[in-house]
């Protein structure tokens, strides 16, 4: 039997594979409990989310740092990302909630057509470990902005942050509409027995496939926010100084555990040595000679992840790669910011998402060669190109299909709340943030409103279709 604690409702319920839930809390059934879905209700939920973060900042920051051993700088990034997203939604919510008039063909006039966006219902949001706050709060903000009830399941790898949600979400949000379920695989598996109106999952493609299988046959729509290998092409005409700073900053942020982190670099021999030397200087300048002592450098999640990363290094070394950095302290969950050169596509590290502080630099024969390499693999969650040429920019943007792209930067697109965030192909399906977040949790209902007064001139639509009508 699996016990699932329902925070905020003062009760627990049990389930085994053969029994159904003995207790159905209100938020699991929008029929039993229906908030009015008004603009006011939605605004209150968004303001509640904001207040939850701001009023308990100290406690939240402590939980966050304790869970991940993260530097405080990372916390501010998470917090500001959330606030930017919520503020943007607050500013455009009224407009988003208005019906949208669409073109009505002449023969259907004076009736009119429009789109009404209605809440999908009760949704499930499952979060990953790496940005435990942002990747629960931002989808939740999108869900409540669309007028949905939501159940959130934070990552069990971040117990302190998950407990924070369990403690505060039911206080700051309408506790009948938003619930928190804590736990890992068994609890999530139990939760998935409930038919939700949408599942919003952020995590690995491996687990996404398991969840798809678990809910197969229920026709539950899903938004999948997954990962992948996000390439960086550094062209010969790139500003190498700026490129190195931006790549190092976004790669080693959160110790490499960022879904849109630059995964690997491709460049030609013409700039390779200069680029690698610049990257090394940036590492030293950002994190000092000993990153383990730096206040700005995070830690790897756990021993399993460290061993996985160590495995990449050993495999690459055996196949002829050179390693800069690579120091590991298992007890401290530490891996130094690491660069690999002399990298070839057959190395394990070039086959899987790295999700750690190792940056492979692979030599290519030119820009076209780099594009060809990306196109051979799965579509990435993000793709990056550093160049000063508009021709390269256009070719890059029109040739590489990815969830998002940046030119002369990495990962920063996520901070603009007015563009969709999501993947394509193996990197996921569906998107959110701002308008797209609202739409993600809405059904866009097509509506036609006709009159009855002009029925006399509509005689042609009614049978029998004989005589004069046959010509139409
Ligand atoms: P994960 O897939 O291991 O776990 C994600 C969630 O799924 C957790 O809440 C976990 O409890 C749950 N889960 C795990 N196994 C399960 C199972 N068998 N059945 C049901 N639920 C299960 O992901 P993670 O390690 O926490 O996060 C890292 C991954 O997430 C990376 O691949 C990264 O690229 C991806 N990610 C994507 C985004 C994005 O926005 N696209 C953001 C962050 C992370």
From TrEMBL:
<dbReference type="InterPro" id="IPR016162">
    <property type="entry name" value="Ald_DH_N"/>
</dbReference>
<feature type="active site">
    <location>
        <position position="259"/>
    </location>
</feature>
<dbReference type="InterPro" id="IPR029510">
    <property type="entry name" value="Ald_DH_CS_GLU"/>
</dbReference>
<dbReference type="GO" id="GO:0005737">
    <property type="term" value="C:cytoplasm"/>
</dbReference>
<dbReference type="InterPro" id="IPR016163">
    <property type="entry name" value="Ald_DH_C"/>
</dbReference>
<dbReference type="InterPro" id="IPR012394">
    <property type="entry name" value="Aldehyde_DH_NAD(P)"/>
</dbReference>
<feature type="active site">
    <location>
        <position position="225"/>
    </location>
</feature>
<keyword id="KW-0560">Oxidoreductase</keyword>
<comment type="similarity">
    <text>Belongs to the aldehyde dehydrogenase family.</text>
</comment>
<dbReference type="GO" id="GO:0006081">
    <property type="term" value="P:aldehyde metabolic process"/>
</dbReference>
<dbReference type="InterPro" id="IPR015590">
    <property type="entry name" value="Aldehyde_DH_dom"/>
</dbReference>
<dbReference type="Pfam" id="PF00171">
    <property type="entry name" value="Aldedh"/>
</dbReference>
<protein>
    <recommendedName>
        <fullName>Aldehyde dehydrogenase</fullName>
    </recommendedName>
</protein>
<feature type="domain" description="Aldehyde dehydrogenase">
    <location>
        <begin position="42"/>
        <end position="447"/>
    </location>
</feature>
<dbReference type="GO" id="GO:0004029">
    <property type="term" value="F:aldehyde dehydrogenase (NAD+) activity"/>
</dbReference>
<dbReference type="InterPro" id="IPR016161">
    <property type="entry name" value="Ald_DH/histidinol_DH"/>
</dbReference>
């Amino acid at each position: 039997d699996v016990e699932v604690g329902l925070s905020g409702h003062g009760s627990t319920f049990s389930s085994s594979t053969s029994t159904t839930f003995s207790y159905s809390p209100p938020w699991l059934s929008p029929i039993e409990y229906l908030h009015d879905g008004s603009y006011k209700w939605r605004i209150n939920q968004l303001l509640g989310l904001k207040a939850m973060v701001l009023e308990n900042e100290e406690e939240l920051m402590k939980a966050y740092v304790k869970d991940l051993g993260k530097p405080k700088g990372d916390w501010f990034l998470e917090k500001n990302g959330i606030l930017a997203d919520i503020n943007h939604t607050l500013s455009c919510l009224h407009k988003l909630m208005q019906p949208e008039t669409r073109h009505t063909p002449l023969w259907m006039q004076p009736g009119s057509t429009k789109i009404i966006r209605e809440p999908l219902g009760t949704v499930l949001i499952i979060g990953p470990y790496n940005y435990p706050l942002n990747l629960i709060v931002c989808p939740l903000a999108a869900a409540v902005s669309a007028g949905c009830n939501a159940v959130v399941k934070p990552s069990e790898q971040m117990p302190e942050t998950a407990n924070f949600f369990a403690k505060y979400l039911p206080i700051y949000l309408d506790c009948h509409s938003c619930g928190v379920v804590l736990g890992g695989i068994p609890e999530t598996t139990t939760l998935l027995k409930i038919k939700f109106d949408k599942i919003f999952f952020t995590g690995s493609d491996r687990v996404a496939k398991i969840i798809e299988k678990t809910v197969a046959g229920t026709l539950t729509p899903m938004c999948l926010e997954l990962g992948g290998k996000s390439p960086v092409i550094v062209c010969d005409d790139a500003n190498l100084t700026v490129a190195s700073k931006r790549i190092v900053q976004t790669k080693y942020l959160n110790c490499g555990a960022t879904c849109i982190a630059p995964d690997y670099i491709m460049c030609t021999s013409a700039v390779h040595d200069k680029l690698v030397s610049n990257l090394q200087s940036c590492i030293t300048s950002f994190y000092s000679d000993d990153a383990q002592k730096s206040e700005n450098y995070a830690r790897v999640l756990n021993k399993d992840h460290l061993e996985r990363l160590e495995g990449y290094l050993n495999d690459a070394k055996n196949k002829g790669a050179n390693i800069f950095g690579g120091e590991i302290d298992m007890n401290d969950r530490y891996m130094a910011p690491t660069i690999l050169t002399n990298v070839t596509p057959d190395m394990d590290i070039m086959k899987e998402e790295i999700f750690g502080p190792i940056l492979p630099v692979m030599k290519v024969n030119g820009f076209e060669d780099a594009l060809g390499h990306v196109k051979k693999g799965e579509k990435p969650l993000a793709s990056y190109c550093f160049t000063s040429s508009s021709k390269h920019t256009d070719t890059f943007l029109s040739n590489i299909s990815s969830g998002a792209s940046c030119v002369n930067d990495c990962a920063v697109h996520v901070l603009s709340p007015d563009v969709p965030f999501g993947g394509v192909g193996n990197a996921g399906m569906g998107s959110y943030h701002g308008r797209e977040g609202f739409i993600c949790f809405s059904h866009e209902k097509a509506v036609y409103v006709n009159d009855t007064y002009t029925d006399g001139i509509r005689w042609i639509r009614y049978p029998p279709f004989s005589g004069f009508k046959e010509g139409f």
